[in-house]
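Hi everyone,

Forwarding the result from last night's run.
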Amino acid sequence: MSQERSLNSNNIRRQEKLESHVNPEVILVCLLAALLVVPLLAAFSMIGTERRWVSLDLLSTLPPPDPSAPFIIMSSSGAEFPLYAARLFSESSVISPVGISPVASVIPLLNSSDRTAVVVTERKNGLAVYGAFTVSSEEYAVLISGDLPHRWFLCFDNPEVRVTDLSGAIQVTADNISAPLYVGLLGESAYISDSIYDMEKILDHAGKSLADRARGKGGNWSIEGDWDGRMKLSDGGVIHSMTSEGEKTAIPLEVELSWRSSEDADELGMRLGRILWRVKGVESLTDGRFLKAAREHDWSANELFIPDPLIASFGISLSAPRDVSSFPPPIRYMSDQFQRLGMRRSEIQSLLSGPIVFSVGGNTQILWFDLPGLVLDLPGRGDESIKLIERFWSDLFFGAELKEVQGYEHGGVTDMPFTIIAVRNDENTVIGLTEPNAERNPDIPRLLSAEASALGWMFLDLPKLGMILAEMPSINAILNPDGDDIVDNESTNRLRETMNDMGKLFVVWDKEMGGHALWYY
């Protein structure tokens, strides 16, 4: 690349600076986390066992990943590219502790293209990251000549371009990418990869797929609705192989999502995105008791104890469980603690029967730190909840000086050694670390009022979560002044800024096949 081209790229970067990087290693880590958290919060919902390669637009032209390996596949049209998620995975060492893939450098191009498809998966020597996106005829002509279009310069620091021996492919190197990016051209699209060997396979597969698509071939997504954003995540059977001994075939755990956004603002002045989701393969990880125990509930019928400011909240409704050994950890932990407090088996079954709500919100003080509270709410329980509150104070905090809480006939609150509340009335049984006079969150009742009934739900305020994460370095410096920092200020500040734009997420498990979600941003 000539010196003049490098100078031009510097001038362009002064006009506009785009910072978007995605880390493929972290994507797979987050994939595995999502595959653990989503089934948990979705109460281990299941879909059919038929396996098929899904396609939409450009995705059908990319080589499909090996179903026995972890992967992410994504296809989007228009403005539905998940830019916020890409930034979240890239702009903090809390989430992205390892190097940046060269494919990440062109995230701004993916975000602004008419159609986009990306695959992240494993290969023998590491990770494979490749994708495709549409380009204009003018950009196509510049690329095929061995140069970079104007907007491409914004993605690279001092880029250099050379034509490879592979027909229709160029190599881009730059100061801000640790390895070359390979760009192949076919049809109306640019194909990108971090490997020249993968690029050869990609162009070969794309040529064949374009011919097949012209003859009407192609797969379909399993989620109904022709929405412009699609994603499937699979662990490749990793979790099943870790939890099942002696079985030869590892069944993949998969999460499929589709989404669309709205340009119109709601009554809160926020844009609204809608998401559909389904989970597949959970039947290999559970004996089904938890799924059978989950039951629909009219959540608007309860006045829940959900404090504000609220960071996260999760609700699930259960019928009386006889055995919780295969249930998710929070439910098993509750059962164990109730048993340690001397509650009989029938009483524990009654306490776990009905709606159960966990919340992270409100305020509590530990030492001299003001931290978010942790709250368990069991709405509408009977007399066994009175015994639970009495046992809680007598067995765990005997001698604590309790203050009455207005509106609650049983239990109370103490500030020593930190703020603890355990109270009960006819509507709620509340145990947690929070101030009892905290304001109640207004979002949850509004959102739940629109749901006729649901098996469970989850609410997450991402800006507030970002603020809490941004305070971690300061807390670490006080608690561990002579030790290594867990996280650094610069990275957590970038994380907070990114999450500040991500709004609020409300996920509903409304049927065995999956559910839906609302995203306010």
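Residues 1-56, 92-99 have pLDDT under 50 and may be disordered.

Cheers,
N.
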